[in-house]
Design goal:
The protein is of the alpha+beta class. The protein has eight helices and 15 strands. It has two domains: about 5-200, Ribosomal Protein S5, domain 2, CATH 3.30.230; about 205-305, GHMP kinase, C-terminal domain (Alpha-Beta Plaits).
């Protein structure tokens, strides 16, 4: 599965299509590239609004994450390397009489990345009421970017014809990680999410993800990290794992990093602000064996692989 979001249309005639990165200025429709117009044309997009579709929205890991000191606004500049993985939430979208957004998982606030994406798109497009259901497989408070990916799925579905800089601006307003999910694959980000560049794909890697019972509030993790003196590291030259949030991660997450290595991981680290950790394995077989063993040591374990980015010319 490529890291761009896969959308299937549920109509009488099969018409599945891919939306690749808006940053590439085009999207794939029924197997052919169609140039995005320089300005949005709501009338031409209206059939998409009434069509029932399902969208697979992938999670991410951070293979590198360095956090700078907060600025005068309290915002933290970051240096990070994202990698998309094939653990996905599923969005189901169809036209409705009134807006309705539901989630399979409890505890999602009524104002979230999906509602924010829809609201901000309506500043540029005439989008009629929609019924959106999100089947959650990416756990919350885990550092896997599930909410950001769900928001990006809405942006790419409804806003694929907007100018790429407009879509990037909207994505950043939804959340700092959302622009990455418009790109997919592997990418490097700096600053506050506004400086983002695609990186060459590495060979496919097999991963084991593990989450302790405890989740991690992003705001609380930043607060704890600010109590620690630390350098603001630059990007590594090698594909090595690093995450500043391991300085303040739950002990249960750090224990799981050690257990993944005991079970054969080449290396292991926390992703995002936690609490999920991941280990990188030499093969699918070794990852699945380790995943089976880890199920007795963590309440949530998932085996998956990295995802390549959309084809680039």
């Amino acid at each position: 599965m490529p890291s761009s979001l896969f959308i299937r249309s549920k109509t009488s005639k099969p018409s599945s299509f891919w939306l690749s990165s808006s940053l590439l200025g085009s999207f794939r429709l029924r197997g052919a590239f169609v140039d995005s117009p320089s300005s949005a044309r709501p009338d031409s997009l209206r059939p998409r609004y009434n069509r029932e579709v399902t969208i697979e929205c992938p999670a991410k890991i951070n293979t590198f994450l360095a956090v700078g000191p907060p600025d005068e606004r309290g915002w933290h500049p970051l240096r990070t390397i994202f990698q998309a993985i094939d653990l996905c939430d599923t969005l189901s979208i169809e036209g409705a009489e009134v807006d309705e957004v539901t989630f399979s998982a409890p505890g999602i606030p009524s104002q979230n990345t999906v509602t924010a994406a829809l609201r901000l798109l309506r500043e540029h497009l005439e989008i009629p009421p929609q019924r959106i259901h999100i089947e959650k497989r990416i756990p919350a408070e885990s550092g896997l970017g599930g909410g950001s990916s769900d928001g990006a799925g809405v942006l790419l579905h409804f806003g694929g014809a907007l100018p790429s800089d407009t879509l990037q601006e909207i994505a950043l307003r939804v959340g700092a990680d959302v622009p990455f999910f418009l790109v997919g694959g592997r990418a490097r980000a700096e600053g506050y999410g506004e400086r983002l560049g695609s990186l060459a794909d590495l060979p496919k890697r097999w991963l084991v993800l593990a989450r302790p019972e405890e989740g991690c509030s992003t705001a609380e993790m930043f607060r704890r990290l600010d109590e620690k003196t630390r350098p603001f590291l630059g990007f590594p030259c090698e594909d090595t794992l690093y995450n500043d949030f391991e300085r303040v991660a739950p002990c249960a997450s750090l224990d799981l990093i050690e257990r993944l290595q005991v079970h054969g991981a080449k290396d292991a680290a926390l992703t995002g602000s936690g609490s999920v950790v991941f280990g990188r394995f030499a093969s699918e077989e070794s990852a699945r064996l380790a995943g089976a063993s880890m199920k007795s040591e963590a309440p949530w374990v998932h085996v998956c692989s990295t995802l390549a980015g959309p084809a680039r010319t």
